[in-house]
Design goal:
- This protein has 2 domains: 19-60 and 179-277, Rossmann fold, CATH 3.40.50.150; 67-161, Adenine-specific Methyltransferase, Domain 2 (Adenine-specific Methyltransferase, domain 2, Orthogonal Bundle), CATH 1.10.1020.10.
- 39% of the residues lie in helices and 14% in strands.
- The chain is built from 9 helices and 7 strands; from the N terminus they run αβαβααααβαβαβαββ.
- It has a 7-stranded mixed beta sheet with strand order 3-2-1-4-5-7-6, with helices on both faces.
- The chain is globular, with a radius of gyration of 19 Å.
Length: 287
Amino acid sequence: MQTIRSRPVPVIKWAGGKRQLLSLLETRIPKRFGTYFEPFLGGGALFFHIQPEHAVLNDANHQLINMYRQIRSDATRISNHLLKWQNTYNTLGTDSAKLSFYLRQRRIYNNFLSAHVCTALSAALLIFLNKSGFNGLYRINKEGQYNVPSGHKKTLHIIDEDNFSLVSHALQKAELTAGDFESACTEAREGDFVFFDSPYYDTFDTYQAGGFSQGDHTRLVSLFHTLTRRKVFCLATNNDCDAVRDLYSSFPIEAVPVRRMINRDASHRTGSEVIIRNFTDDDAIIE
C-alpha cells in the first residue's frame, strides 16, 4: 500500500539532521513568528516539517543550495537523472561493476566541484552519491574533492517522485542563499525566528573543506546575542558538552538524547544534544 504524505521529508541524509527531534522541536518553536531563517540548512528537516509561509534558507555548501534550487525549478528533471542511474546500478551484475559505477559518478561530481559549477546534473549527482555512498556522509577533503567511499549497497532505492514534488512545492515560498551564516541573518527583524542547526562543536568540522572552527562557534554565539537584543526568536542545537554549555550559559539549555546514525562506529551512535532558546514557552524573549 502506498503511503500518502502531506508533508515533505528530506531528500538527503545530512550530518546532524533533526528528523528524530522533530516532535520535540515543533513544541519548542515560537507560537507565532514572521520570517523563518535557517542559516545551516543541511537536510532541512524542520523547515519541511513546519513549512513556514516565509523563509530564508542558507548553507555554506553551494552545491547543496544548488540542489534545492534545481528541485524547486524542475523536480522532474532531477528525478529522471536519478531513476536512470538507479536502474543502471541495480542491473549491474557484480559488486565490482557497482563500485566502478559509483566511482565514475563521484569523478563526474568532483569535476563540477573543481570547476565551481552548479547545474541540474551536479544536483542529481549529489543526491545519488549521498544515497549510495557510505552512511550518507558528505565529506570534502583539503583539495576540495568529495571523497566518501561507496556504501557497497546491493540495491538502490534513491528516488521518491511524490516526495520530490512536495519538496519542490515547499521550496517555492523560500529564498535560497549560499554563504556565511551571519550574512544569512542580516534581514532578521523583531518577531522573526532563526533556527541554528550548526555543525556540532568539535565533531563534524572535518566534513567540509575549511571546517567550522571554534572561532566560528564563538561568532555564532555573538550573533545569537545580537539577534536576542533585536528581539528575534532564536533556537540553537548542538552536541552536549561543557564548551557549548559555557558558550550559551546566558540562556536556558535543555539536554535531549539522540542517535547519531552517521558515525562509522555504531557504539558511538548514541549521545546527547542540547536545545538552547532565547525565549520562553510564552514567547517572551529572555533579556
